[in-house]
C-alpha cells in the first residue's frame, strides 16, 4: 500500500482475495474427491455452480472467471431471491 491507495483499491483487493480463497478450496476439494465428486457439463468439463448474495457482484464473478481454470454457472434463482427479499 502507498499513500495513493484509495477505497477502490482496497475493495478490489478484498474481491480478489475472496476469489483466490474460493479457487484454493475448489482445488483442495478436487484433490480430495477425485473424479467421483465432480459435476461436469455436457462437454465433460468441470462446472462450478455459484449461488448466493456475492454472485450479484459482476466484478467478483469476472475476477473469479479470470483466476479459475473451470467454467461457472450462476443460478437464475439467485437474482429472484435477492429481488424478492428487497421488495
Automatic annotation (TrEMBL):
Q: Which family does it belong to?
A: Belongs to the FGGY kinase family.
* Enzyme Commission number, as recorded: 2.7.1.30
Q: What is this protein called?
A: Putative glycerol kinase
Q: Which GO terms describe its cellular component?
A: mitochondrion
One Pfam family in the UniProt entry: FGGY_C
GO biological process annotations for this chain's record? glycerol metabolic process; glycerol-3-phosphate biosynthetic process; triglyceride metabolic process
The GO terms this record gives for MF are: ATP binding; glycerol kinase activity
Give every Carbohydrate kinase FGGY C-terminal domain span: 3-70
Keyword DNA repair part of the UniProt annotation:
no
Asked whether the UniProt record includes ATP-binding among its keywords, one would answer yes
Q: Which InterPro entries match?
A: ATPase_NBD, FGGY_C
The UniProt keywords, alphabetically, are: ATP-binding, Kinase, Nucleotide-binding, Transferase
Amino acid at each position: 500500500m502507498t499513500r495513493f491507495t484509495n477505497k477502490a483499491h482496497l475493495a478490489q483487493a478484498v474481491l480478489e482475495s475472496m476469489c483466490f480463497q474460493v479457487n484454493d478450496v475448489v482445488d483442495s476439494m478436487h484433490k480430495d474427491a477425485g473424479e467421483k465428486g465432480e459435476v461436469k457439463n455436457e462437454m465433460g468439463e468441470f462446472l462450478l455452480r455459484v449461488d448466493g448474495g456475492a454472485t450479484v457482484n459482476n466484478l467478483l464473478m469476472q475476477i473469479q472467471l479470470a483466476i479459475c481454470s473451470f467454467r461457472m454457472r450462476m443460478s437464475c434463482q439467485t437474482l429472484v431471491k435477492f429481488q424478492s427479499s428487497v421488495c
